[in-house]
Amino acid sequence: MKNNLLRVNLINLRDFGKGNYRQLDDYAFGSGGMVFAAPQLKAALDYANLESKNIKPFVVYPSPQGVLINQELIESLAHQEHVIIFCGHYEGLDERFVEKYVNLEVSIGDCVLTGGELPAMIMIDSMSRLVPGVVGKTQAVIEDSFYRGMLDNPNYTRPFEWEGLRVPEVLLSGNDKQVSHWRRREAVKRTLTRRPDLISRASIRDYLADKVRVLIIAHDENIELESLGALCEAYELSRSYVLAKSHELREKIKNLYPEAKVLGSLDKILSEDNLLIVKIFSGSKNNSLHSLEVKRRCLEHEGSILFIFAQDESELESEALEGVSSYLYESEINNVSLNILIGTALDRFLGKR
To answer: How confident is the model at residue 99 (pLDDT cuts 50, 70, 90)?
Structure first.
């Protein structure tokens, strides 16, 4: 705040109370506790709007009825120019005010607090960390728990040995690449063990390092080669392959998509040790896996990962694939072009949160 990176203005609701006692609340209709009255709340909101300078404020109300707060929600709030937080007490705010003026109700968890001040402080603190310059090292924010949707890796400091427990040797190696790999692996292990529910919304691309490649089974009539390069580049795939049976189609692909490795068979690519294959198609099959299960198995796998895309599940039935560790994932979107199938699946598994 001293460096003008953000401004926090505290407004006392009592200043807008009525009568000699500056009354803010009244009895709830139909019996019950005390409720903050709508006219006083609206007067406070009008005053707060004076600070907006023609920017429409985003009004937040900490409430047990709100959505559970998480990092994605905090990031959304941090992108707002002006956030107004109403701190309730007793039975809360008049529902008419909430319906008309509150943009979002949030909860910090299934517990009861005396008022909304502590949740407000939590939100302000979390939002502040995302403002450039607030935290000294931007990379520290990126590596924090939940920023990518995953838990943080374990951390250690001196002494090397304490009460019979030692710091992992890799952290003393001085090899930055090995340390980075260890941290990613430990973050994955911790998330899968402690909070597997996070995997559904986590961005796992950074935890797979450069192990992911994509193979597209191509037919002349069902592939738009010009846009595939942009897709693979956007998701930072280390290599993309296109399988085409005819010589004519292979030559066409080489001209339109020179970045790809064009194959006539699967033999060479499947010869790699410890390769995990995820076969993705548009359709329905009984033995297919849920996307969450596919993400989990990809995170657990130590070797390379190959996503194979096909318009039809029958195209994935190959003698070369027999005996290879593979899983089947069916896209929820049926009867779409191969490019749409590839784009939606890559975003599901490798996209940002």
So the answer is: very high
Q: Using the predicted structure, report yes or no on whether residue 222 has a pLDDT greater than 60.
A: no
Catalytic-role residue among 129, 250, 297, 353? 129
- Whether 119 is catalytic is no
Sorted by where each begins, the domain ranges of the chain are 13-128, 143-202, 206-350
Per the residue annotation, which of 117, 144, 186, 206 is the catalytic one?
Answer: 144
**Average pLDDT of 131-143?**
80
Task: Note whether 353 and 202 are within 8 A (CB).
Answer: yes
Q: Does domain 143-202 have CATH number 1.10.1270.20?
A: yes
Active-site option among 64, 75, 239, 348: 64
In this predicted structure, the answer to whether residue 226 has a pLDDT above a threshold of 80 is no
Residue 64 is a catalytic residue: yes
120's CB contacts (< 8 A; 6+ apart) are: 62, 85, 87
Catalytic residue among 26, 57, 75, 91: 91
CB 262 within 8 A of CB 250: yes
| Per-residue pLDDT at 123 exceeds 90 | yes
CATH topology of 13-128 equal to that of 206-350? yes
For 21, the token pair is 């006692």
Yes or no: say if 305 and 298 are a contact pair by the CB < 8 Å rule. Answer: yes
Residue 129 designated active-site: yes
pLDDT for res 68: 95
Q: Which CATH architecture has domain 13-128?
A: 3-Layer(aba) Sandwich (3.40)
Report d(CA 151, CA 199) in Å as an integer.
Answer: 10
HSE of 211, CA atoms in CB hemisphere, 13 A: 21
Q: How far is CA 303 from CA 128, 211, 272, 306, in A?
A: 39, 7, 9, 10
- The domain 206-350 belongs to what CATH superfamily? SPOUT methyltransferase, trefoil knot domain (3.40.1280.10)
Q: State the average pLDDT over residues 205-226.
A: 77
Instruction: Please say if 183 is a catalytic residue.
Output: no
- 38-66 residue pLDDT tens: 999 999 999 999 977 788 999 999 999 99
- Between residues 225 and 112, the one the model is more confident about: 112
In this prediction, residue 104 has a pLDDT band, given cuts at 50, 70 and 90, of: very high
